[in-house]
Amino acid sequence: MTEFEPKIVGFLCNWCAYAGADLAGVSRIQYPPNLRVVRVMCTGRIDPAFILEAFRSGADGVLVAGCHPGDCHYISGNFKVYRRILMLKKLLEQFGLEPERLRLEWVSASEGDRFATVIKDMVNEVKKLGPSTLRAGG
Q1: Phi, psi (degrees; rounded to nearest 5) at 20
Q2: Residues 6+ apart with CB under 8 A from 79
Q3: Domain spanning 8-129: which CATH class is it, in words?
Q4: Distance CA 110, CA 98 (A)
Q5: What is the pLDDT of residue 134?
Q6: Can you say how many angstroms the Cα of residue 12 is from the centroid of all Cα atoms in its chain?
Q7: Domain boundaries, the chain
Q8: Is the sign of the CA dihedral 128, 61, 1, 137 positive or negative?
Q9: Which whole-number Å values give the CA distances from 64 to 4, 38, 115, in the listed order?
Q10: Rg (alpha carbons) of the chain, rounded to whole number
Q11: How far apart, in whole angstroms, are the C-alpha atoms of residue 58 and residue 138?
């Protein structure tokens, strides 16, 4: 039997986290290939329905990564997403899903090594949790 490889959807801020992911790539920093990236202009623009749809469509984990507080290019987008993530974690529990499957991280454009570390940590944590029980038809 092969080891469970989680599917993780990552919503990454264009200005910081996506640039940090790009830096990790051009710097050849190794991290697991489990992440599927959705590039957004700002994490504050992420509708909670997008995250729930990612889980429903088969994601075992969802990462939301954006600018550090105080550094948002749209001033308060990261504060908006912070409140939404807190609400969504409570909602996931009501669906019978571990709130640890949803993660919010602050990653700047110069933190390629931090981005890789976040991905490694999240993949390891989701592996421990096992496959998601919240899937279409599952």
Answers
A1: -65, -40
A2: 44, 69, 72
A3: alpha beta
A4: 31
A5: 82
A6: 7
A7: 8-129
A8: positive
A9: 22, 10, 12
A10: 14
A11: 9
User: Are 106 and 69 contacting, i.e. CB atoms less than 8 angstroms apart?
Assistant: yes
Give dist(CA 26, CA 65) in Å, integer: 19
Question: Going edge to edge, which strands form the sheet with 102-106?
Answer: 35-40, 8-13, 61-66, 102-106
Residues 6+ apart with CB under 8 A from 58: 7, 132, 135, 136, 138
Chunked in runs of 10, what are the mean pLDDT values of the chain (138 residues)?
91 98 97 98 97 97 97 94 98 96 98 98 97 74
**Burial status of residue 128 (CB atoms within 10 A of its CB: 0-12, 13-18, 19 or more):** exposed
Measured over the CA atoms of residue 47, residue 50, residue 56 and residue 58, the dihedral's sign is negative
Residue 95's SS3 state is coil
- Distance between CA atoms of 57 and 16, rounded to whole angstroms? 26
Confidence at residue 137, expressed as pLDDT on a 0 to 100 scale: 53
